[in-house]
Amino acid sequence: MPQPPDVPRLLARTTPFIVSHRANWPHLNLAPLGVEIPATHRFDPTRLDSRDVIDGLHRLDRFSFGPQDMLMPRWVLFDCGEFPGLVMGLGAPARTLPLAVRRAYHVDHRPDAFVPLSMWVAVHNAEPGAWFGHNLSSANLVLGDAALPGLATVTKALGIAATGATRQYGATQWGSPSLHIHLNFGDLHLLSAYTPAHTHPATFAYRLEVDPARLAQVLTPGWRKPQTPPTLTIDADDGEALLDLHAQLEAGVDWLLVGADPGPEGRPQRIHLRSA
Q: Which positions ≥6 away from 210 have C-beta within 8 Å?
């Protein structure tokens, strides 16, 4: 079972930052869940002084999604996140990080460089109060022994709170080991179970009804996700079951994604669902 976030330790070792066009700033909560984003760490992607942190975001994206054929070109992050929406993250000065991590970020000779260790990218939907979570990444993949439990979870909690969203949409692969992170914020209303419009058709789209109290609880030391009993469990790689599930969704049947567990050794992830 994933370790719960050690929020005091996490925030003692990192600084929150945001990347968004400055015209958006008055419409965002720049102290989400009471965590102040310092003025020095609010970056406008149209300004040259944002380049270093944006370079770091692309290296973080490469660690996370390069092997999955979902690497973002720079224009995609700018057009689809940094300018119209936001990038919320936590980072730290290079000098506080292990040498291997500094090298991975290409800042091994720049001890004062600010290194983004996580990001949640979101863009506003046409639907009032709704935001689409475009990307969630954590450097725990490369931090090794210096990994920060809960890094991605806390980043997403702060990001949702910064947007003030009442609904959050997203798309994730069934086999993703990060499903438990998204489920921390509530059960996910499935909108698709098979999505050929995506690079990876075995992707589901979802809607989360945002509960501000739940966001705050996620940051409470020792918090654990409440368990919703499932009515159906399938394997993440069971294409026939996913297509059947998608057919039910298109027919108007409501399904909630309520849990995901690693399968037995060598077996795919187990997906837990509940009819709504």
A: 160, 165, 166, 167, 168, 185, 186
Q: What is the pLDDT of residue 131?
A: 98
Q: Which domain holds residue 30?
A: 7-166+210-226
| Residue at 248 is within a domain | no
**The pTM of the whole model exceeds 0.85:** yes
Bridge partners of residue 169, in order along the sequence = 132, 207
* Three-class SS of 212-231: HHHHHHHCCCCCCCCCCCCC
| Residue 68 belongs to a domain | yes
| Contact between residue 117 and residue 138 where contact means Cβ atoms under 8 Å apart | yes
pLDDT in tens, 230-264: 999 999 999 999 999 999 999 999 999 999 987 67
- Is the dihedral angle over the CA atoms 68, 110, 149, 40 positive or is it negative? negative
